[in-house]
Write a structure and sequence with these properties.
It is a single chain. With about 210 residues, the chain is an alpha+beta fold. It contains six helices and eight strands, in the order H-E-E-E-E-H-E-H-E-H-E-E-H-H. The chain has a single domain (about 1-205), classed as Class II aldolase/adducin N-terminal domain (L-fuculose-1-phosphate Aldolase), CATH 3.40.225. Strand 3 and strand 4 (about 60-65) form a beta hairpin. The model has no long low-confidence stretch (mean pLDDT about 95).
Length: about 210
């Protein structure tokens, strides 16, 4: 458990180093035996220690530590609905957040959109940060997906472990930046559903050892 706490702290710090987050924004969690571990509320990542990570039960009760991130409801909802989810990363990256502030999803302008699990990366409807309404909006946008944007807010991504969740968040921000730039020139040409279905079939074994 102590190793997992250290990895959560390291992942949170990496978000800022990689440029997908700023300051104290965002949050990170990982599934644990009886619930999940999550970064605390309002504590600077550079000052954060493994002992500061908050333990929570599947029902949202605090089982150890101080005050959890206010965004814990959608972390809890993801772990409940997605047994394959081992970790969740929430960040405020500049390009993804810019698109989210316009209420834009990321369409199939590039085949790598399939990395999030579908033929688009949806934008969840806006709801008050930390609310169960936001949790519901995020879960609706994550239907068939491993990542989504959050209107006027940021992005969320999950993976089998912390490394996978962070990698996906970085990839989504890269796609958002590419789409943002393409929009400066004109209307990007989108791949058809049939083309994306082919890509999604390839992605079922993408990155797995043969």
């Amino acid at each position: 458990m102590s190793a997992l706490r250290r990895e959560i702290v390291e992942t949170a710090r990496r978000m800022n180093v990689l440029g997908i987050n700023q300051g104290r924004a965002g949050n990170v969690s990982a599934r644990a035996r009886t619930g999940f571990l999550i970064t605390p509320s309002g504590l600077a990542y550079e000052a954060m220690k493994p002992a500061d990570i908050v333990a929570m039960g599947r029902d949202g009760t605090v089982r150890g530590g101080g005050k959890p991130s206010s965004e814990w409801p959608f972390h809890s909802a993801i772990y409940t609905a997605r047994p394959e989810a081992g970790a969740v990363v929430h960040a405020h990256p500049p390009h993804a957040t810019s698109l989210a502030c316009l209420g834009r999803s990321i369409p199939a302008f590039h085949y790598m959109v399939a990395v999030a699990g579908g033929d688009s990366i949806p934008c969840a409807a806006y709801a008050t940060p930390g609310s169960h309404a936001l949790s519901n909006a995020v879960m609706a946008a994550l239907e068939g997906r491993r990542a989504c944007l959050m209107a006027n807010h940021g992005l969320v991504a999950y993976g089998e472990n912390l490394s996978a969740a962070l990698d996906l968040a970085v990839e989504v921000e890269a796609l958002a930046a590419q789409y943002w730039r393409a929009l400066q020139i004109g209307k990007p040409k989108l791949l058809s559903k049939a083309r994306m279905a082919e890509v999604l079939e390839v992605f079922e074994t993408y990155g797995r050892p043969g």
